[in-house]
Amino acid sequence: MSCSYGFMMGLAKWAHQKCGRLGKKATYRWAQDRRIVINLDIVKTVIAQCPICQHTQQRTVPHIVRGQLNRGKLPGQIWQMIYVLCRPIRVGNMCVQLCTHTLDI
Fold it and tell me: Which of 18, 76, 13 has the alpha carbon at shortest distance from 50?
């Protein structure tokens, strides 16, 4: 029995809604369990056109940190010490300790 493309799209939309909008595999499996013949390509098309799925699957844009970083809560995040070796001199090596912590006033 041959079904038209519009009828298959309607069945795929209905199956997608009834299975709870859980994705292409769940929609296809839900339809197959109920003996509904749906092409997997049509299921992919229906999911790509579903406005609810498009809204819930939006990708978040990564937040770019600019300026001064806030003071952390863990020990490794609170202080950052930088040890810089100076050029060797006749007396020996000298180290300079720099603290990069800034006070928020």
Answer: 13
